[in-house]
C-alpha cells in the first residue's frame, strides 16, 4: 500500500522506507522555530532542568520576537531580553520586529519535504510549501533543540479534493472557514489535512498559506499540499531549493475524502466564540462593530492588503470604528508602501501598525474592552482572545473585514 505526503515526510525524517498511521517513530527534526510567546520558558528549562545543556545544531534554530512588538510591559521586556541575549550567546538565527513568525519562516526558511517543529500552534502553515509543520510545547521543543530528534505518532490523513475556482469576491479564508465548519473543531484531531485536485492551480501561495495555517483550528496535527509549479516559483523567488517534493501515492489510504467545488464557496463569518461556529457572512450582516483588524499570519500578506485598499479607495472608515491594518512582515510592509496601499489606508482613517501579531494575539495592540465587538482576519475567536473576557470576536476575510470597517457593522464587499 502507498503512503500519503505526511507519511512520506515522517519516513524520510525517521530514515525508514515505510510508516503507517499509529506507528511511533524517532525522527530527525529539520528546523525548529520559537517565538517570544514561550521561548523564555524554554530558556529557563535549558538552564535549570538539564545536567549537560547544549544545542544539537544551532543552524536548525530560528527565534522570532513577534507577539508583543514593541514590548508592552517591563515583564515582557525582560522575557524578550532573555531571548535576545541567549540567541546572541549561542549564535541562533534571530528576528525582532520583522514580522509574524510564520510569515518570516515562509519567506526565509521553510523548504518542501522538511519536518519542522514550531513553538506555536499555527506552524501547520508550512504545509503550503509541502513541509510537515507542527506545533509543540516547550518541553518537546527543548528536547528537539538539545538532541536534534523527537518522536512522532504517524497521523491518519484527511484528503480534500478541490475542483473549480473561487468566485469573484470569495477568498481562501472563506474556503477554510467553510471546511472547519463542515468537519468541526475536532474533525481533524491529530490528523493531517491534505489538499489536492485541479482546483489547486487556482490558488495562489497566499491562498495556500491561509488554508494550511487555519487547519489547526479543526484539530489537525499538520496540513499539507503537493509541491507544484506555483510553490516552486515562490521557493525560487525566495532563493531556496526543496529538500524533497512528495505527493501521495495513488493507492495511499485516507481516513476520509472530501470533494469540494470551489465555485460553491461563499463569504463566511465565524461567530463568537468558536472557529467552527460559521455562517454565511450575510446572515451576520448588521451586527455593530467597534473594531476591525486586517493582519496576522493568516491574512496579513500583500494580497490581503491589496483587497482591503481597493475597497477603501474613495471611502472612509466608519467614525465609530477603529480599523487596525498590520502587515505580516517587513517585506509585506515595504511592498505595500511601494504600491501606495498604506497611504490609502491612512487617508481613509485606518491605523497602520508595525509588522507583528498585534490584535490577533490580543495582548499589545488593539485590545478590545468589555462588551466590544471585533471583526478580524486573525486566527481565533475564543472568549477573551482579543481582550476582555466579555467581548466578541468574529472572523472573516480581508474583504468582509474591510467592508465592515467602512459600514460600521458586519457587511460584505457587495453591500458597500
UniProtKB/TrEMBL annotation:
Residues 21-408 form the Aconitase/3-isopropylmalate dehydratase large subunit alpha/beta/alpha domain. The keyword tRNA-binding does not apply. GO terms for biological process: L-leucine biosynthetic process. This is 3-isopropylmalate dehydratase large subunit. Signal peptide: none annotated. Its EC number is 4.2.1.33. Binds 1 [4Fe-4S] cluster per subunit. It catalyses: (2R,3S)-3-isopropylmalate = (2S)-2-isopropylmalate. [4Fe-4S] cluster binds at residues 297, 357, 360. It is an enzyme of class 4 (lyase). It comes from Hominiventricola filiformis. Belongs to the aconitase/IPM isomerase family. LeuC type 2 subfamily. Pfam families: Aconitase. The keyword Iron applies.
